[in-house]
């Protein structure tokens, strides 16, 4: 009887270690450059927990500012502005992808995140008509998919979400945007990890 009990404990210990070895963790730290249709940026992604990271991003984005004149005429200005993102991410699909034998290198998995962006439009590098565009902050819950190529350094990312945007309006000026708005965000980007 004692032999069966000892054998049972050995088997349970072996199964527990086998299940533990199946668990995958996000990378400790990743530095990358990323390009999208309207942006170029540098990111750092740091592990906070086994499946949770904090992603910080500094980049340049394009946009436009519209001014309406008293006679009803509208003009637009092309902008290139810096932006800052802070984004906690939860990569919930790592274990499943690993079990199925799929690539999880460089956090290749599906994720949920809370994207927080600040755009100081007053620091625009390019403003073709020199219009005043209000700086803004946005907070957007997002769902995303990240996949790494077989070359390990290249990846692609697609994410989407709906959230809140607050424009810091100068009360002495008239804008074509509201102070508080709903923001829809859709991104498709390619990147290179160092």
Question: How would you concisely characterize the structure shown here?
Answer:
By secondary structure, the protein is mainly β.
Q: Could you say what the CATH topology is called?
A: Porin
What string gives the helices and strands in order? HEEEEHEEEEE
Kindly, what is the distance between the CA atoms of the first and last residues, rounded to a whole number of angstroms? Answer: 57 Å
Overall SS class = mainly beta
Q: What fraction, in percent, of the residue positions are helical? A: 10-25%
Report strand order across the widest sheet: 1-2-3-4-5-7-8-9
Number of domains: 1
Contiguous uncertain segments of 5+ residues: 15-21
Backbone CA Rg: 23 Å
Which CATH C-level class is it? Answer: Mainly Beta
Range of strand content: over 45%
Can you name the CATH architecture? Beta Barrel
Looking at the structure, what is the overall shape? elongated
| Quantity of strands, as a count | 9
Most strands sheet? 8 strands, antiparallel, barrel
Query: What's the overall average pLDDT, rounded?
Result: 85
- Enumerate how many helices there are, as a single number: 2
Give an account of the 3D structure:
- By secondary structure, this protein is mainly β.
- It has one domain: Beta Barrel (Porin), CATH 2.40.160.20.
- Helix content is 14%, strand content 53%.
- The chain has two helices and nine strands.
- Strands 1-2-3-4-5-7-8-9 form an eight-stranded antiparallel beta barrel.
- Strand 2 and strand 3 (52-68) form a beta hairpin.
- The longest helix is centred in the first third of the chain and has 21 residues, at 2-22.
